[in-house]
C-alpha cells in the first residue's frame, strides 16, 4: 500500500455545503447600516428606558440574546454606549468572562471629598448562542470583523462560534464560552429584585426556557414581562393554537399567582413598540 491520501468526494461536498450554509447565514443577518442609514431597530430605545429602572449607579443592565446578528451593537453606537460582551478591549479581543465584573467610573474632586461617578450608558451583553463576528483561533475564542470571519470560513482555517439548530445543540451550550454566558445569565435570574423582560423569545429553546421557569419558581422577587406578537401561534391546518409546553407552564404559573405578565408587543412595532410600555 502506498501512503497516498485517498480523496473522499462525499466529505469534500459536505465541507463545501457547510461553508455555503455558514456564509448564507452570515449574509442574511449581517445588517450593513452605515452612519447615514436609518436604523430600523429600536433596541436603543428599550434599553435606555430599562436603564432608568436601575437605582444603583454601579449596577449594569444585562442583555441576553440568542441572535447571532449585531443589531444590538449597531443600535447602541449612536448613543455612546460601552458594551461589555466578555471580550478584552484593545487589539487582543479574546473572550474573558472576568470582563463582566468591570464597571466604568471616574473620580470627581470636590472641596472636601473625592466622589466617584459611574458611566450610565453601559450594559453587559450575553450572546448565549454566539455571534457572526466570533471565531475560534488556536482554541481561543476571539472577536473579529464579519468580513474576516467570512474569509476564514472560505479558507476553512478557523471555526465560526455559533450554536445552530441541531441534535447536539444543547451539548454545545456546555462548551466555552457558552457555558460561562449561560451560567452568568442563570445567576442573574436568581438575584433578588430582578426584572426579566423578553422580546420575541418563543421559549422553544428548552434549556433556556427551563432555566427561566425554574428561576420563577424559586426566586419570589423575580418579575417577568414576556412580550411577543405570537404568544399563541394559530395552526391553519389543524385550526388549533400551537402552544409549546413551556408556554403552557408559564400560563399555569401566572394563573397560580407568580409574577408573570404577558404583553403583545415587539421591539419594532409601528405604533406602540416595547419602549412605549416599559417607559
SSE inventory with pairings:
Elements: H1 9-29, H2 43-51, E1 61-65, H3 71-77, E2 82-84, E3 105-109, E4 114-118, E5 122-127, E6 130-137, E7 140-143, H4 146-155, E8 159-162, H5 169-172, H6 178-189, E9 194-199, H7 206-218, E10 222-227, E11 233-235, E12 240-242, H8 245-255, E13 260-263, H9 274-278
Parallel strand pairs: 1-5, 2-5, 9-10, 10-13
Antiparallel strand pairs: 3-4, 6-7, 6-8, 11-12
Helix pairs in contact: 1-4, 7-8
How would you sum up this structure in a few lines?
The protein has 279 residues and is an alpha/beta fold.
Write the element-wise H/E pattern from the N-terminal end onward. HHEHEEEEEEHEHHEHEEEHEH
**Quick one: overall form?**
globular
- Poorly predicted segments: none
Instruction: For the record, give the distance between the C-alpha atoms at the N and C termini, rounded to a whole number.
Output: 74 Å
Rg (CA only) = 22 Å
- Biggest sheet strand line-up: 1-5-2
Instruction: Report the mean per-residue pLDDT as an integer.
Output: 85
Strand content: 15-25%
Described by strand count, sense and barrel closure, the largest sheet is: 3 strands, parallel
Give the helix proportion (percent range).
Answer: 25-40%
Number of helices: 9
Q: Quick one: how many beta strands?
A: 13
What structural class do helix, strand and pairing data support?
A: alpha/beta
Q: Keywords for this structure?
A:
279 residues, alpha/beta, three-stranded parallel beta sheet, 22% strand
How would you characterize this protein structure?
The chain is α/β, with parallel strands linked by helices. Helices cover 33% and strands 22% of the residues. The chain has nine helices and 13 strands. The chain has helices at residues 9-29, 43-51, 71-77, 146-155, 169-172, 178-189, 206-218, 245-255, 274-278; strands at 61-65, 82-84, 105-109, 114-118, 122-127, 130-137, 140-143, 159-162, 194-199, 222-227, 233-235, 240-242, 260-263. The strands form five sheets. A three-stranded parallel beta sheet has the order 1-5-2, with helices on both faces. A three-stranded antiparallel beta sheet has the order 7-6-8. The chain has a three-stranded parallel beta sheet with strand order 9-10-13. The longest helix has 21 residues, at 9-29.
